[in-house]
Amino acid sequence: MATPLYQTVIDTIVARIASGELPSGALLPSETQLGAELGVSQGTARKALSELEKRGLVQRAQGRGTFVTLRTPEMSLFNFFRLRSPDGTLTAPELVSETVIRRQATAEERAALFGRPEEVIEIRRVRSVGGRRTTHERSCLPPALYPGIVDRAPLPNALYVLYQRAYSIIIVRADEKLRAVGAPADVAAALELGEGAPVLLMRRAAVDVLDRVVELRVCHLVSEGLDYFVTLS
Amino acid sequence: MATPLYQTVIDTIVARIASGELPSGALLPSETQLGAELGVSQGTARKALSELEKRGLVQRAQGRGTFVTLRTPEMSLFNFFRLRSPDGTLTAPELVSETVIRRQATAEERAALFGRPEEVIEIRRVRSVGGRRTTHERSCLPPALYPGIVDRAPLPNALYVLYQRAYSIIIVRADEKLRAVGAPADVAAALELGEGAPVLLMRRAAVDVLDRVVELRVCHLVSEGLDYFVTLS
């Protein structure tokens, strides 16, 4: 089956966003300009922009044009860090400790990550909110996409912002699985909890603008006095 | 500040959907018809329809017009029941037991629910998936919106579908807070778990098409072998 024309327009714009040619906040060509440049009708260009808007990659401003969605560290924190006080207040987490290593990938990591890597970079962090240890986090990356990241440690708090600025990897979606578990011994020690205390286990696959799984993350989150906020619709 | 014209169009259509005048699946008037009927420009009608599409209330079908989003029991289950096998398979839950009572509202329920009710209807259910008890659920409703619901017991499995069909209450969003907790004694007994076993505590405020909080739900979910799936973006 032939690729529909508007899909070609979508792919072209996504590639330009991913390469940094169209950075965050940039103004896109008008529907007419896009149509002329890519040899499609204005209607096809409009359909492609609509679809990109639905995916959250671009935003239209009445009378001003269409812009690449501006992604800031604050937005990344707000969208992807869901642990809040019960009243919904978000406090930015602080780093307690960090280890970055390169190791063999597990079979599961190899199967899930983009490029089926033999090895992964593992970033292991303990983070705190308001002086209290709340998060034990292991993020696994395919090394080919993040050259030299091991040498960048200590890494900034907002990893997704680093991925975008240093590697042009733009996370647009995270698929998560949550469960309640008793804290394993190493997690309990790191979070200063009793072994077996109930903690939220979150396993996340982060997907970038090119629809690649570019990070797997396993977090244990303290639950006492904190909630994990989500909205379903 | 005056209400923008397109907001008036939105409110009119939402009211028609909520009253059942425009039922699920119904074809909406065209932009031109809407504009003529409500005395606004076609552009204003288009903007209102775009906004309603963004909120998921209507869907456009190329060349066929705009329709009220079809909501089926399957969609309600798929969107709002997030407990799945680790591979993502969704099995519809079955009812193990149900109690429906009317009681005094707590201060918290009164503050959160639409109409600030003095009393609430509480629906207490235990549900199972594949023969295993997985869910202990307490749903609280403001009685004024659900006349006679106590006499309808036993209630159907998909409560949101009942709300829509019997009371024209259309749930469009659920704000949830999740934590890991040790199972309290009553929950542990109902779910056949050891007291203190880690379970997922989910507290949900369900919001309808008129932006009213029409149900508060507190669920305890078994975590062993099951995941709670969410997508962030």
TrEMBL record, chains A, B:
Ubl conjugation: present as a keyword of the record?
no
**What Pfam families is this protein classified in?**
GntR, UTRA
Domain annotation HTH gntR-type: ranges? 3-71
According to UniProt, the name of this protein is GntR family transcriptional regulator
Q: Which species does this protein come from?
A: Rhodovulum sulfidophilum (Rhodobacter sulfidophilus)
Domain of life, source organism: Bacteria
Which UniProt keywords are present, listed alphabetically? DNA-binding, Transcription, Transcription regulation
The UniProt entry, under InterPro entries, shows:
Bact_HTH_transcr_reg, Chorismate_lyase_/UTRA_dom_sf, Tscrpt_reg_HTH_GntR, UTRA, WH-like_DNA-bd_sf, WH_DNA-bd_sf
